[in-house]
Amino acid sequence: MLSVLGNRTYRRLFAAQAVALVGTGLLTVALGLLAFDLAGSNAGAVMGTALTIKMLSYVGLAPVITALVARLPKKPVLIGADLIRAAMALCLPFISETWQIYVVIFVLQSASATFTPAFQSIIPAVLKDERDYTHALSLSRLAYDMEALVSPAAAALLLTVLSYNNLFLGTVAGFMFSAFMVVITALPASSAAAAPATSLWHRTTLGARIFWRNRHLRSLLALNLVVAAPTALILVNTVVYVRDVLKRPDTDLALALACFGVGSMIVAVGAPRLLDRFGDRAVMLTGAVVIPVVMLGATAVTFLGLSGAGWWMLLTLWFLLGAGNSTILTPSARLLRDASTEETRPYVFTAQFSLSHACYILTYPLAGWAGAIMGLSPAAFALTIVAMIGSAGAFLSWPRNTTPAVLNILNRDPGSEEQAVDQPAAERAGRRAEPR
After folding, report:
1. Crossing angle, helix 310-338 and helix 130-148, to 10 degrees?
2. Is residue 434 part of a domain?
3. What's the average model confidence in pLDDT over 372-385?
4. Crossing angle of helices 250-304/150-158, nearest 10°?
5. What's this model's pTM, rounded to 2 decimal places?
6. Is 108 a residue whose pLDDT tops 60?
7. Which of 32, 84, 117, 119 has the fewest CB atoms within 10 Å, i.e. the most exposed one?
């Protein structure tokens, strides 16, 4: 897996991603403690609202921003987004009202809605070999898991000598390092500027239309809902479980989040072998089974109470949910790559970024406000139902014994209607077809 780091361009981009995510992990821990400091037992509602605002900026702005910057060089776009994120993170230590959290989070996450899809769409152009790209996806998943493992561990250590407000400075440093690495990296030339001129509306909706016409991507939409349910439960309500229900110290919040990351990381490490042996469908749909089952267990133990061994039960459940999420998230970019061309790739990755986060507009408020009004048990049960619905949709949408199809709807004639062209993935650059 680590052999892919021999590519200097990818190595630098991966370093930028990893360090920025460590800073984002510090932000997650510090933001939860800031919300508890300002709102007490209603911290879940504050976090739920803040994360919903984050999702609204992702869903509403990501496709529009991608369309607006489509013809711009990628490097200044990535650097500018990182600098805006660093500036907003620098404002967080000075917040004294909950509404200020919402404003800063909106601007910061709007910049992330610019950075992340652009960053992800570059990687297939850097690593064109199938196996290298799969290894890069596993490394990328590991980098995301650092947000839930290394960052909380570092946060737990820092919280023994610093106040949580100082953790925000680590977020600033992470974004600044990411900008620096992009500055010194030679990025591959984009063909977007040479693509036929199209309207802003065409470019804004292009990725969503590709999703709708591809059966595998429609299944991915349902899988996004499966992932959103446990993620919302953990990010929104872990601070309530740890501080309010179990009466444990700040450092245990970091430990609980770290268990979620460890589960995801273990699966990500084994993902290349699993995908080679079983294919995308089997691996991803396994996660669609595991997550609802584990969430049903989490609902049961929440109803019964978390006294006694409840702390260890919580850590176990969070570990399993992290593992289930990784079986879906790690291979998902392979589907996106196979369903796009070089010209449509930024739009497809942006559509996944936007549509996947649209699921959190449902699950974050459900976790936060249902937990605050009705209690953690009804909130956990409602999220379990959401995961079950997504799982059923994924199984129904993804037929057996099929290979991913390439759906190219970008014509040379910009004034004509889009045409859907199906092509087996095995015919593209000698790629291996998914096992039957």
Report:
1. 150
2. no
3. 86
4. 120
5. 0.68
6. yes
7. 84
Q: Would you state the structure tokens that stand for residue 191, as one six-digit string?
A: 């063909």
Tokens representing residue 401 in the block? 């014994």
- Output the domain CATH number for residue 117: 1.20.1250.20
Q: Judge contact between 394 and 223, C-beta under 8 A.
A: yes
Question: How does residue 383 score in pLDDT terms, banded at 50, 70 and 90?
Answer: very high
The answer to the question of residue 436 being in a domain is: no
Structure tokens at 412: 């040379």
Tell me, what's the pLDDT at 136? 79
Q: Domain tally for the chain?
A: 1
- Name the residue among 233, 59, 88 with its Cα closest to residue 174: 88
Write out the residue range of the structural domain in which residue 94 sits.
2-427
pLDDT at 64 over 90: no
Within 8 A by CB and 6+ apart from 173, the residues are 23
Residue type for 427, please? E
Say how far apart CA 61 and CA 80 lie, in whole Å: 16
Phi-psi region of 214 (alpha: psi -120 to 50; beta: other; left: phi over 0): beta
Q: In this model, does residue 386 exceed pLDDT 90?
A: yes
Closest to 147 (Cα-Cα) out of 319, 27, 320: 27
As a whole number of angstroms, the distance between CA 303 and CA 54 comes to 30
Mean pLDDT of the chain: 77
Q: Judge whether 410 lies within some domain.
A: yes
Cα-Cα-Cα-Cα dihedral of 13, 15, 20, 22, to 10°? 150
User: CB within 8 A of 111, min separation 6: which ones?
Assistant: 81, 82, 84, 85, 88
Can you give the pLDDT at residue 203? 67
Per-residue pLDDT tens digits for 242-280: 877 777 777 777 788 888 888 888 888 888 888 888 888
